[in-house]
């Protein structure tokens, strides 16, 4: 028998986020560390200037289409843990759990990867060269994740304020670096505009383009997870599309501007050979002091991504607990802070474990992109189902749908397949983790299963109990 899902108990999660708060979450979910690290991977895969920029333009276009696909889904279906909830309501809770189980691990791995690269940028600032080891990088990354978990444990508004600050620092940093590159470049004498060019790689352009667009889409990804904050955003049906649209348009503009700055100063060969390309650009423009300052700024950018992920992922666990496949403890939301303390601790483990198991950014990237694009394709396809249902109030509607939605889903499936061919072993690991969601769902339903009525009743009971404890305190 199909298990029917329910609406979140309104007494449990209150809408406290503004459009600006949510747009900043969108921005930081996308702009983690990718734009500071993946251009080197894209340049090596593309092998030519034209394919390098084609990959970034194509990735930006596909991601903009995807952002507006998820904007319409969020407008039609604003729920706590919406990334889980929409699949559960349109298809089945079993499929929703399998995808979101994988997504929880994937987002944890993605956050770990970003934290590791942020730590790599910070190490030259903090440590002498002899102490800059992989173990030191993992230690700094772990400390960063623990600090941000503590901030979000204090409540969703402190987490959102931290997010707004880190996001604005990112916007200022990226635009400032790119504009400085253009200003300094054009003021240099003609003979100073010398940088090596990577020769065009022999062979068909198609395999090189598909290999280049995989890391490009990784750098653009993350916007879809904003759906988990559907119950936290005030007037979500109207404001959700504004927030996700504004956030993604800002991202695409700044990414293209910064990649052009990389190219004008370093050249394609310089990009391809720079492990930390943003630091290389800053060093070329301002020398060692500039490299140090920018390394600090990139670390803050990485922290912003990790914080945005911590902010939204517990809501997905809340939705799964509502369907009786996770312990009831995941339903507990502090009425004062709106923080999910148990869910935060669980997701903290999901971040810290991949950081110490996988270790390198490239392995984390291949794992994340395979699972992310596959689950995003299924989640995006729910728009076909939602459009056949009458809307209770006016909602945002994507022009060109269903053709653009179908195009977007096809692109995601193609990228997932390409990621599999690039690193079959890591992708198979992701597939195994995905498939383990099915027996875990059956086990969860047997151990933790409850009816929708008991979920809502227990939510109210927990809320009343916490309020009584607060009054007694």
**Overall average residue pLDDT:** 76
Q: What's the count of strands?
A: 0
Radius of gyration: 22 Å
CATH class: Mainly Alpha
N→C terminal distance: 45 Å
In short:
With 473 residues, this protein is mainly α. It has 16 helices and no strands. The chain has one domain (19-472): Up-down Bundle (Amino acid/polyamine transporter I).
Can you give a write-up of this model?
This protein is an all-alpha fold. Helix 2 packs antiparallel against helix 8 (205-220). It has a single domain (19-472), classed as Amino acid/polyamine transporter I (Up-down Bundle). The chain has helices at residues 19-30, 34-46, 49-76, 82-90, 93-126, 134-153, 156-187, 205-220, 236-272, 277-322, 341-357, 361-386, 403-422, 424-435, 437-448, 452-472. Helices cover 75% and strands 0% of the residues. It contains 16 helices and no strands. It is globular, with a radius of gyration of 22 Å.
């Amino acid at each position: 028998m199909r298990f029917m899902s329910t609406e979140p108990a309104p007494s449990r999660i209150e809408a406290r986020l503004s459009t600006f708060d949510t747009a900043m979450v969108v921005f930081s979910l996308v702009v983690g560390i990718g734009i500071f690290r993946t251009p080197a991977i894209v340049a090596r895969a593309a092998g030519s200037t034209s394919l390098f920029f084609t990959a970034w333009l194509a990735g930006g276009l596909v991601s903009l289409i995807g952002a507006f696909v998820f904007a319409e889904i969020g407008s039609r279906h604003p729920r706590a843990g919406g990334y889980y909830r929409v699949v559960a309501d349109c298809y089945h809770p079993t499929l929703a759990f399998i995808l979101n189980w994988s997504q929880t691990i994937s987002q944890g791995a993605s956050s770990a990867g970003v934290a590791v690269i942020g730590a790599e940028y910070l190490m030259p600032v903090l440590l002498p060269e002899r102490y800059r080891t992989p173990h030191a990088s993992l230690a700094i990354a772990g400390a960063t994740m623990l600090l941000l978990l503590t901030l979000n444990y204090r409540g969703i508004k402190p987490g959102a304020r931290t997010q707004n600050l880190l996001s604005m620092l990112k916007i200022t940093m990226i635009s400032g670096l790119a504009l400085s590159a253009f200003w300094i470049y054009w003021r240099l004498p003609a003979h100073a505009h010398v940088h090596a060019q990577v020769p065009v790689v022999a062979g068909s352009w198609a395999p090189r383009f598909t290999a280049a667009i995989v890391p490009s889409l990784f750098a653009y990804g993350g916007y879809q997870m904003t759906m988990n904050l559907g119950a936290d955003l005030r007037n979500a049906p109207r404001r959700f599309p504004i927030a996700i649209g504004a956030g993604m348009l800002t991202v695409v503009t700044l990414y293209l501007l910064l990649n052009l700055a990389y190219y004008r100063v370093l050249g394609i060969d310089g990009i391809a050979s720079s492990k930390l390309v943003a630091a290389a650009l800053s060093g070329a423009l301002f020398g060692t002091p500039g490299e140090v300052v920018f390394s600090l700024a990139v670390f803050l950018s990485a922290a912003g991504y990790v914080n945005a992920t911590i902010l939204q992922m517990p809501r997905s666990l809340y939705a799964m607990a509502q369907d009786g496949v996770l312990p009831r403890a995941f339903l507990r939301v502090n009425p004062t802070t709106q923080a999910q303390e148990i869910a935060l601790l669980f997701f903290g483990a999901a971040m810290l474990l991949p950081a110490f198991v996988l270790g390198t950014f490239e392995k984390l990237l291949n794992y994340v992109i395979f699972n992310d694009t596959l689950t995003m394709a299924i989640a995006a396809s729910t728009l076909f189902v939602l459009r056949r249902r009458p809307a209770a109030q006016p909602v945002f509607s994507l022009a060109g749908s269903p053709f653009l939605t179908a195009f977007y889903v096809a692109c995601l499936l193609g990228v997932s397949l390409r990621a599999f061919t690039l690193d079959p072993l890591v992708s198979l690991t992701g597939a195994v983790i995905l498939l383990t969601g099915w027996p875990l769902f059956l086990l969860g339903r047997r151990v933790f299963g409850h009816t929708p009525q008991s979920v809502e009743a227990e939510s109210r009971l927990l809320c009343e109990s916490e309020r009584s404890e607060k009054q007694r305190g």
